[in-house]
Structures are given as C-alpha cells and as structure tokens.
TrEMBL record, chain A:
Family annotation (InterPro entries): AcCoA_carboxyl_beta (IPR034733), ClpP/crotonase-like_dom_sf (IPR029045), COA_CT_C (IPR011763), COA_CT_N (IPR011762), MCCB/AccD1-like (IPR045190)
Every CoA carboxyltransferase N-terminal domain range: 13-278
Any GO MF annotation of the entry: methylcrotonoyl-CoA carboxylase activity
GO BP term, example: L-leucine catabolic process
PANTHER family for this protein: ACETYL, PROPIONYL, PYRUVATE, AND GLUTACONYL CARBOXYLASE-RELATED, METHYLCROTONOYL-COA CARBOXYLASE BETA CHAIN, MITOCHONDRIAL
Domain CoA carboxyltransferase C-terminal per the UniProt entry, residue ranges: 281-527
Record-linked SUPFAM superfamilies: ClpP/crotonase
Protein's recorded name: 3-methylcrotonyl-CoA carboxylase beta subunit
GO cellular component: methylcrotonoyl-CoA carboxylase complex
Automatic annotation (TrEMBL), chain B:
InterPro entries named among the record's database cross-references: ATP-grasp, BC-like_N, Biotin_carboxylase_complex, Biotin_carboxylation_dom, Biotin_COase_C, CPAse_ATP-bd, PreATP-grasp_dom_sf, Rudment_hybrid_motif
Entry annotated with the keyword Transmembrane helix: no
Gene3D superfamilies xrefs: ATP-grasp fold, B domain
Organism: Mesorhizobium tianshanense
Protein name: Propionyl-CoA carboxylase alpha chain/3-methylcrotonyl-CoA carboxylase alpha subunit
Keywords: ATP-binding, Biotin, Ligase, Nucleotide-binding
Lineage summary: Bacteria, Pseudomonadati, Pseudomonadota, Alphaproteobacteria, Hyphomicrobiales
GO MF term (any one): ATP binding
Record domain ATP-grasp: where: 124-319
Residues in coiled coil: none
Start and end residues of each Biotin carboxylation domain: 5-448
SMART domains with a match to the protein in the record: Biotin_carb_C
Entry superkingdom: Bacteria
UniProtKB/TrEMBL annotation, chain C:
CDD domains, alphabetized: biotinyl_domain (cd06850)
Keyword tags: Biotin
Pfam families registered for this protein in UniProt: Biotin_lipoyl
Domain Lipoyl-binding, chain residue ranges per copy: 87-163
Domain of life: Bacteria
Name under which the protein is recorded: 3-methylcrotonyl-CoA carboxylase alpha subunit
GO MF annotations, alphabetized: methylcrotonoyl-CoA carboxylase activity
Keyword Lyase belongs to the record: no
Entry annotated with the keyword Ribonucleoprotein: no
Length: 535, 491, 167
C-alpha cells in the first residue's frame, strides 16, 4: 500500500494559526470534560462519604482492568440542557476492559441530583444498551439511582424510546445471550429496580444497596404499613429471602471484586473474522491534525491529509483516484484492522455518489468495516445536476450505505449538512459509533445559507404586516438568527442532545476508532444484502 | 580403633545433632539407636539411625524429657550407652545418674560434674572459691527474703537468670530497677517451665559484653585439654546466631590466658568429657559466666579449626579411654564461622515461622559443612526449637571465612518456611561484623540488619511473584492485544 | 482493580500488563518493563528484568509464593480480592482473639460459658521463649477455646471465640 505523501507545510503561518486555534478547542474540550466528570459541590461529595459510597468515577476505575483503555461515550451529554446542572446526564457510559473482556459500563452518578434520571439520562442509558445490542457487548450496571426526575416525566416516561426502552433493551440482550451484571450500590426504586432484576447476575452492597418498587413512604401512603428499608428491600432480605439479588457484598469494593469475578466467567466471543495485520503507527503524527483543520470552518481542507494522520503507516490504497474526486475512497488499516474509508473532499456530485456506492459494496463483500469522514455541505444542486440524476445517484449511495452489513463508523470532522450528512452514515443510519470533532457543525443546511433564508422569511412576514425594515434592523435580525442557529448546530449542542457518541479531540480519533472497531466485531457480520437501487 | 564397652548408642535427641552423632557413630562402627516423638517420624535423623523407638509425651518436648521411656528404649535395643546431645536432658544430673544406675554409659560428664557446673549458682561459687574471676551477683537461695534488695544493691543494669538455665531461656535485662520485681516474676515462671527449677539469680549486666567460650575435654584420668576458644557474641535475645573460632577479639596472650583459665576451672572440677567454659569479655578483662556440661550447638567451628571430632572424643573418654591427644597436639588452623539457620522472621521481631520445606538445596564446596536436621517435604512446627540447620565454613583467614559464609547463605535455598538466611548473609557482610567489633548487643543496636530493606530487589521479587501467580498473569494475558497496546488511554 | 501481593507485612498494589517483549509490572506510578519468566524445570526459572537474567528458585503453595533471587529468600502472598475484601469486614464484627505469632499454649485461663470483660486474660502462650498473655479486647461470653495446653498454633489462628450474649 502506498504511503500518502503529506503536502502540508508545518512551518507555514497558516499551519501555526490553525494549530493554535485547534489546540485551544481541544483544551476547552478537555476542560469541559474534566468539569463534568469531577466538579461537584462539596456537600454532595460529603454525602457520598457519609453513605460509605465511592464517587462514580472511582467505582468505574476500580471495575476496569488497570492499564487498559476506557472509551467514554457521551461525556458531555446534557451540557446544554437543564441549565448545565446535570453533568454527563448523571450517567457514566463507556466501553472498557473488565477481566479481559470488552464490556459496556453503565453507571448512575449519585453525586448529581441523587442519581435521578433526567430525560437525557434515559436517552443515554438507552443508547448504551443499543451499543450493547448492536455490538453484543456484555454490560456492567453500577446502579445508584433515586428514580426518575418527576417534573420532567413527560419527556422520559411514555414514548417508544423512553425509560421502558431500557428494560426492553435488557430483555433483548438477555435473549441474545449477552449477559449483564448489575451492582446495587444505592436504592433502586420503581423502574430502577428492574435494572438489577433483569440482569443475569446482580450483587447488592450491604448497608447502602436496596431494591424495591415503592420505598417505605410510598408503602405507608399506599397501605398504611410501617416498614424499614432493610425489611422492604435490604441486601440481606433480597439475598436470603426474596432471591431478587444473587450476591451479598460487604462493601462496594467487595461488590466490584465479585462483579469482576463474574465477568471473568463469561465466554469469550469468537470475533467476526476481518483481515488484520500487526498494527503500525501513522507516519505523520496525529498532533499535526491541529494545523490542518482550518481555523475558518468555511475553508476547504484536503481529507487525504487527515487520513494520513489516522491510519497505519499513513498507507492508503485509493480506489478510483481519478473519478468522482469529491469523495475520496480507499482501503487502509487502523491498528491493523482493514477498513474502507469514504471521505468528503467537497460537495457530493453524481459521480462521487456512484463511486461511493460501488466502493461500499466492495467493502461489504470483502468484510471490510467502513469509516465515513464527514465534511459535507450536501449534494450538488442545479438544473444540470438534476438532469444528470444527482438525486437517484444520491439514492444509490444511501441505499448502499444503509444496506451494507459491515460495521460503519462516522467521524463528523467539520460540516454535516443536508442529505449528504445522511448519505455519509448519519446518526439515523445506525453507524455503530458516531463521533464529532469540536468545531463541527451539524444542521440541515449551513449557517450562512440558513441565516439568509430565515432572515428573508422574517422580512417577508413583517412586510405582510406593512412593516419595512431598515438595513440596520435587518442586520440585527440576521445577527440574532445567525447566533441561535450556530449555537444549535454546534458540536456541543449535538453532543448534549446525544446526536453523537461524544466529541473527540482529533488526536484521540485513531484510538477511539480502534476500540470501536474492536467492539463492533463482537457481533457477527451478516451476509451482504441490499434493497433496490434506482438505476 | 580402640575397643569400647558398648556397641549400640541410643541418641536421646532429635534433629541435626542426632544426625551429627549418628555420623560419628558410623565412623566408629557403632550401632545407632534413636528415640523419636511422632512429630519427628520421617525426619532424616530417624531414618538414618539403625533403629528407632517411638516415645510419647504430654507435649512433644515432654517426650524427649521422659527419663523412664528413654531408659526403657535403651534397654529395648540393648544400647550400652546414651548420648543426650544438647538441650533436653543433656545437663540433667538426675537423668545421668539414672542412666548409670540402669547400667548404661552416659556419654557426657559425671552426674557430679553436672551437679556442680550445670547449676549456675553452685558453679560460680565454686569458681570464685578457686580464685577465678566472676561478676557481681545476688543469688536467691543464699537468702530468699533479701534476694530483691540484694539484687537492687548491685545497681542497674542487671541480668536476671534462672539458676538451672541455658540457651537464653528465661533471661531478662533490667535497666530500670522498678521493673526488677516484674522481671523476676516472669523469669521465674519460665524457669519453672523450661527447667523445672524456679530458682533465680541476678548479676551485673555488662554493657557491650563479648561472649567468649573455651572448649575443654577431660578424661577419667585427670587429663584436661582445651581446643581453643569460640566467640559467640552475635546474638539476638540471648540466642546465638553466628559463632566463630578463634575470637577476633583476643591477642595471643589473652587467648593463652583465657584457655588456661578454662582448663584450670575444668581440672579443679575434675571435669570429664566435653564441656565449655563461658566467659564475658569486656574488651580488657574476662570473668566466668557459666560452664556448659555438654556438647554445644556451635562445636563444629572448633572441629573445623582443630580437625578433631568432638563426638568421637566424647565416646572414647566415656568408654574409659585416656585422651588420645595432649595439649600440644591441638593446633589452631585457619578460621571457622557457623551461621545458624532458624525458622524465624527477622523483620517481624524474629517471630518463629512454620511451614513445609518445599525446596531444600544446601550450599557446598570446599570448606563448607552443613549440619542439618531437615529434609525436603518436612513440616516445620513450633513444637521444638526453631533451628533448622547450621552452615559452617572454614577458610585460612577470618575475612575469607566471612565471605565464604555470606556466599553460602546466599546459595542456601530453603523454600516453604521463612528463615533468617538472608539476615545472616547481611550480618556476615556488615562492616561492623567484618571489623570484628561485635558484642552481644550488636544486633539490637543495628535493627536495619533484621529489617532487611529490599531497595532494588523489591521489583525483582514482585515481578517474579506476579509472573508466577496465576490470577495476576491470567488477567494480563486476558486483555486483548489492542487494548493492552493502548494502555490506560482515556478520551 | 489492582492485584495485591503481600511481602513482609506490606501490601503492594500491582498489575501486570502484556507488552511486546513480555510483560510490564505496574507498581503505583512505577513501571518495570519488560519482564518475563522462563520456566526451567521444577521450581527453577529465569526472571528477565530490565535486560538482566536472574536465576530464580521458587515454590508455590496455594496463594503463597516462595522465592529465592539474588541470594535472598522471600515469601510473598497473593491476596485474593474476593476473600480479602470479604474478610476485611467480617473480622471487624467477629469476637475472636487471634494469635499474634505462632506458638504453643502454656495455659488456658477461661472456660466456655464464662462471662468475661475486656482485658480478661484468656490464655498464656509461649513463643520465642517469651510468654505472652492473650487478653480479650471486649466484653462477652467465651464461646470456644480452640487450643489446649501444649498445643501449637500458627500465626493468626483463632485462639478463643467469644459471643456477645448477655451484653
């Protein structure tokens, strides 16, 4: 495989300005992540200590094998919601190694609102179990949830993908033979009680752990019965009387040791056989990504330079290098795994769509997972293109992408707009994982275009009312529309709403993808099968 | 070979000393018999003896102290002689007398010798009367009512000792006179239990004393010779740890003087057989401490520097022969060091350890002697003394001997029961030891020797243990290669 | 969760991770690599550590590893996390008197059923030529005296069990 020869001048003024800018964005990301992970009011920390509880991050670290990676999912979920008071949506989710096995870790964070589930908490838990189902990953639940946040129940209770989906997903996992272990580290009340109950194995911590459908006060209100927490759903009772819990632990650490021992009993899954060789680091350092991603999001950049800093040895076998050039397609290796890369090098034309559709089928036949690198403003518009069948060619790309059985992974590098964002394995097409870079913009159309359209509409509405706007007034409206639009198409907003699996520092992308590919291979890859391609 | 009035010798002992005695008996073409408690069944001493007779007791130790059973065993196997080894009944005059009354030869001094010299109080009075130097003391039985006040009047520091004691058992140093009475109560209880004799005496404790002892041999014809001295100053809790011969502390002149004194003490006591006259040496002068009327644990260092088999000499003189050697035949050659391997944990205050000997590999080579009582597979318990083996080396000079001994301690592989071998190696390499400037408080003043910091060895031990522990290695092997290569990466 | 190996009374939290040339030993922030162990027959092997080859004699007895390296013998114990963490709590609640070191019982001072106060002498034991009085750390009723006079015991052996009845 040929090595990509980088044409980037790392000494140029442009490179250094970009680097400064992107390093600042990466630092900001790390700061925000650190804050949501660790900044808690002292009184909440103190309460945990009083209850003999470890902080959720300590629990997760104790659960994981030391010296192994943890790919955290949706760290900044809910960062733009609930006035920023529910960091990480009060959930820690990620893929880690427990007793040598790849597992999903899902942990309630009792330091946030007593571990109450908010609508985005529910969304994050459902997503974590979706990941478990799609990739056949066992789950370890660290349960410490005080129940749903009642004032917002309309946003998390009744719908298809609301709280009930958590339990639905648990039953699906069980049916698939993918085991779950739950540790009851606090009170698991009402719906929360079913997380341990629906897990194959569960452990309850003496003293702090309890499982019941209704707490003592609910029981008193409902039946007049006075009952203690211990009698109602204590560790002793559940492990010796009701059989709801399997193992009694003396302490959280003891419970974690038991959970690790249980996971160590899980059968190792034969991974989907895809081509793999010994890994090799890229020839160009990942840190150079900072100098390549333009400071100005509207500026074009060469995707091959990005690929050169993600893949093994910076080696890239480009497919159809002379045709459909706005979509770069080719084979590469990532930590030794063979992957097929589709990267936007401009707007999608008919030929690039056809090339992409063909390449996807090559990869699917060849059992080669697909990596989509998005920087897409959309499919080309205009009479000539429509006459050339841009829509039906786009449909071919979407059909091929959606129908491919191999695992798909998406990185939103910069722009993600229009139907092009769908065709490049957008969230709706269930790529196994979708990550975003800090400067990315995710919206139906670009900010400038949207601002123009929205300002026009506003002006027209006002004109109907007989109002005529001065240029100054128009500018003010334009400004405010643009601000709000930008905010709601930012990576931070997207990740807050869990439209992705998290924002990545570009330099972390290679490792994150390697873990994602490895995780995806726990599920068998089905034989290629497609719908009807409009010819 | 000279004729002896017996052809079978019963060994009333166990462990390494029993084996040591069997080896000489074989050389003398005598049959060896041994008594053993059930706990010792299967130990090498029992399997090496030509015949072994089980004995029992309320405790394992009690079995080896049971005169009646031992004499009955001797009769059973037609043993004409009994060798008591050291410890147990070796210095029990009553036992020696009963053995003789049973028509059996006692390979040791006469009961009268034991009565006189084995009793510390009687011995020191006798020695003092004969004009030899002794330390200031208060003896309880002189006047029990005034014992404590007499002891106080000597002034601190004091050493409280059982009259019938030996081997450091029941001894206590008193630096604050207020603690004297308490120390006496405790020492008395231990004295009663170990020696069946609660009498005590108190003597002035010499700070930084050196323990130097002279090996003597006497026969029934009034001949007494010495085999030079041994230095046993490296002690912990009055327990000897490293012994050597000759003493690095003595000038030629002092050596001659101390050996002469020992011979004279033994001669004036009409001493027969092997014995040891112990002295305290304060750097310039020495005074009589006690006499041990038996073969000592550390006798091999004397054997190494003189080339004489002390057990053989014991057998001959008790067999009625005149000493084969005269003083001028005894020549001191080179330097010998003995290191005692104990089942104990120096870092935990020398607490005794137990376990099964899983691997046992002794050092060897020229000038290295091992007196061992254990075998691979043997269970080490606390029922008996915790000494497992002695490693004795012989070299032309003290420096070479210390180096050889250190190397031997490093080469000694005894796994399964913690021992003091590494500690011994550290002592043998310690500058103060190498300079010869040791005294009985040397180990207490240098606790770092017992602590044994790991420093650079720590990671080697942890690495080896980690690699050899299945759960540790398994959890490393279980991690997929990709994840292992990413280490503790976090996004 | 790290593994724990105990050496001379100190617990070392450590982890082994694989690397190209063998393994890495992680001890706190300290990493020793590469390390490996080649077996050479019964109880013998070569430890490869930081480029050096160290001959090792070893014996494994349950969770106890006896090692002889660089002329030095040591005993290490693997602390199984399940039992160590399970015990950690149990001991706190149980009323037992344990042996501070191996030894022999000289005399027992209490009988089952006897009501005792904290500080009561339970037993006199002998170890290292010294007598030690084992005392009760709390009030209670003697449940069981586990050793008779003259019997020997190991370190940490339960000598006397108490129950809290009547208190």
């Amino acid at each position: 495989m040929q090595r990509i020869t980088s044409l980037v001048d790392v000494k140029s003024q442009e490179f250094r300005l970009n680097e400064l800018h992107n390093r600042r964005l990466a630092a900001e990301l790390k700061e925000r992540q650190h804050a949501v992970r660790f900044n808690r009011p002292e009184r909440d920390r103190e309460r945990l200590r009083r209850q003999n509880k470890l902080f959720v991050r300590e629990r997760v670290e104790a659960l994981l094998d030391p010296e192994t990676p943890f790919l955290e999912i949706s760290t900044l979920a809910a960062n733009k919601a609930y006035d920023g008071e529910v960091p990480s949506a009060a959930q820690v989710v990620g893929i880690g190694i427990v007793a040598g096995r790849e597992v999903i870790v899902h942990a309630d964070d009792a330091s946030v609102k007593g571990g109450a589930w908010y609508p985005l908490s529910v969304k994050k838990i459902v997503r974590s179990l979706d990941i478990a189902i799609e990739n056949r990953l066992p789950v370890v639940h660290l349960c410490d949830c005080g129940g749903g946040f009642l004032p917002l129940q309309a946003e998390f209770f009744a719908d298809r993908h609301h709280a009930g989906r958590i339990f639905h997903n648990q039953t699906i996992l069980s049916k698939m033979g993918v085991p779950q272990v739950a540790i009851v580290m606090g009170h698991c009340i009402a719906g929360g009680a079913y997380v341990p109950a629906l897990s194959e194995y569960n452990i309850i911590v003496q003293g702090s752990g309890a499982i019941f459908l209704g707490g003592p006060s609910v029981v008193k209100a409902a039946t007049g019965q006075h009952v203690s927490v211990e009698e109602l759903g204590g560790a002793d009772m559940h492990t010796s009387v009701s059989g709801t819990a399997d193992y009694l632990a003396n302490s959280e650490m003891h419970a974690i040791a038991i959970a690790r021992d249980i996971v160590a009993r899980f059968n190792r899954i034969e991974k989907a056989p895809i081509d793999r060789v010994a890994p090799e680091p890229p020839a160009y350092p990942a840190s150079e990504l900072y100098g390549i991603i333009p400071k100005d999001p509207r500026a074009h950049f060469e995707m091959r330079e990005i690929i050169a800093r993600l893949v093994d040895g910076s080696r890239f076998h480009e497919y159809q290098p002379r045709y459909g050039r706005s979509l770069v397609c080719g084979f590469a290796r990532l930590h030794g795994y063979q992957i097929g890369v589709l990267a936007n090098n401009g707007v999608l034309f008919g030929d690039s769509a056809l090339k992409g559709a063909h390449f996807i089928q090559l990869c699917d036949m060849n059992r080669t997972p697909l990596l989509f690198l998005q920087n897409i403003t959309g499919f080309m518009v205009g009479r000539d293109y429509e006459q050339g069948g841009i829509t039906k060619n786009g449909a071919k790309l979407i059909m091929a992408m959606s129908g491919a059985s191999v695992p798909k992974f998406t990185i939103v590098c910069n722009h993600s707009h229009g139907a092009g964002a769908f065709a490049m394995a957008g969230r709706a097409f269930d790529p196994r994982f979708l990550f975003t870079w800090p400067q990315a913009q995710i919206s139906a159309i670009g900010t400038d275009q949207a601002t123009r359209v929205l300002t026009d509409i506003k002006a027209k509405q006002l004109a109907v009312d007989g109002r005529h706007l001065s240029e100054q007034e128009l500018e003010a409206i334009r400004e405010s529309i643009s601000e709000e639009y930008k905010e709601r198409s930012s990576a931070y907003y997207a990740t807050s709403e869990i439209w992705d699996d998290g924002i990545l520092d570009p330099a972390d992308t290679r490792n994150a993808l390697a873990m994602a590919v490895s995780a995806s291979l726990n599920a068998p890859i089905e034989t290629p099968r497609y719908g009807v391609f409009r010819m | 070979m000279r004729k002896l009035p017996f052809d079978t010798v019963l060994i009333a002992n166990r462990g390494e000393i029993a084996i040591r005695i069997i080896k000489t008996l074989r050389e003398l073409e005598l049959r060896s018999a041994i008594v053993y408690h059930d706990l010792d069944a299967g130990t090498p001493a029992v399997s090496m003896a030509d015949v072994a007779i089980p004995i029992s007791g309320r405790t394992p130790v009690a079995a080896y102290l049971d005169t009646a059973q031992i004499i009955a065993a001797a009769h059973e196997v037609n043993a004409g002689a009994i060798h008591p080894g050291y410890g147990f009944l070796s210095e029990n005059a009553e036992f020696a007398r009963k053995v003789l009354e049973a028509g059996i030869v006692f390979i040791g001094p006469t009961p009268e010798n034991i009565e006189l010299m084995g009793d510390k109080i009687r011995a020191r009075k006798f020695v003092q009367r004969n004009g030899f130097p002794v330390a200031r003391s208060a003896i309880e039985e002189d006047d029990p009512a005034t014992f404590i006040s007499r002891a106080r009047s000597i002034g601190a520091p004091l050493l409280v000792k059982p009259s019938a004691g030996g081997g450091g058992k029941g001894m206590r140093i008193v630096r604050d006179l207020d603690a004297l009475e308490h120390a006496i109560v405790q020492a008395r209880s231990e004295a009663q239990r170990y020696f069946g004799d609660a009498r005590l005496y108190v003597e002035r404790y010499v700070e930084k004393p050196r323990h130097i002892e002279v090996q003597v041999l006497g026969d029934s014809f009034g001949n007494v010779i010495h085999l030079f001295e041994r230095e046993c100053s490296v002690q912990r809790r009055f327990q000897k740890v490293i012994e050597e011969a000759p003493s690095p502390a003595l000038s030629l002149e002092l050596r001659e003087k101390i050996c002469e004194t020992a011979v004279n003490i033994a001669r004036s006591a009409n001493y027969r057989n092997a014995g040891t006259v112990e002295f305290i040496f304060d750097g310039s002068g020495f005074y009589f401490l006690e006499m041990n009327t038996r073969l000592q644990v550390e006798h091999p260092v004397t054997e190494m520097i003189t080339g004489i088999d002390l057990v053989a000499e014991q057998v001959y003189v008790t067999g009625g022969h005149e000493l084969r050697l005269s003083q001028s035949d005894i020549v001191l050659a080179g330097h010998a060091i003995e290191a005692r391997v104990y089942a104990e944990a120096p870092a935990r205050g020398f607490a005794p350890t137990t376990g099964k000997v899983l691997v046992l590999d002794y050092p060897g080579g020229p000038g290295v002697r091992i007196d061992s009582g254990i075998l691979q597979g043997q269970q080490i318990t606390t029922a008996f003394d915790s000494m497992l083996a002695k490693v004795i080396v012989h070299s032309p000079t003290r420096t070479e001997a210390a180096l050889k001994a250190e190397r031997a301690m490093q080469e000694l592989v005894l796994l399964g029961c913690e021992t003091n071998a590494s500690f011994l190696a550290r002592v043998l390499a310690d500058e103060q030891f190498l300079s010869g400037q040791v005294h009985t408080g040397y180990l207490d003043e240098n606790p770092h020797l017992a602590a044994g910091e790991f420093a650079s060895d720590l990671s080697a031990f942890l690495a080896a243990a980690a690699l050899l522990t299945r759960p540790v290695r398994d959890s490393a092997d279980a991690v997929p290669e990709l994840h292992a290569s990413l280490g503790s990466w976090r996004n | 969760m790290n593994h724990v190996l105990e050496l001379e009374g100190v617990d070392y939290q450590l982890w082994l991770s694989p690397c190209k040339q063998g393994y890495r030993l992680h001890l706190g922030d300290e990493v020793t690599a590469p390390i490996d162990f080649c077996h050479q027959g019964d109880g013998c092997g070569i430890l490869i550590i930081a480029g050096a080859r160290e001959p090792v004699r070893f014996a494994i007895d349950g969770d106890t590893i006896h090692l002889h390296i660089r002329g030095r013998t040591s005993v290490l114990r693997y602390r199984d996390p399940l039992s160590a963490l399970a015990l950690a709590q149990k001991h706190a609640g149980q009323l037992v008197a344990r042996a501070p070191m191996p030894g022999v019982v000289v005399a027992t001072s209490v009988l089952p059923g006897e009501v005792i106060a904290a500080g009561t002498a339970l037993m006199v034991v002998e170890s290292m030529k010294l007598e030690t009085v084992i005392r009760s750390s709390q009030n209670g009723v003697v449940d069981r005296v586990h050793f008779k006079e003259g019997e020997s015991f190991e370190q940490d052996a339960v000598l006397v069990t108490l129950s809290a009845e009547g208190h």
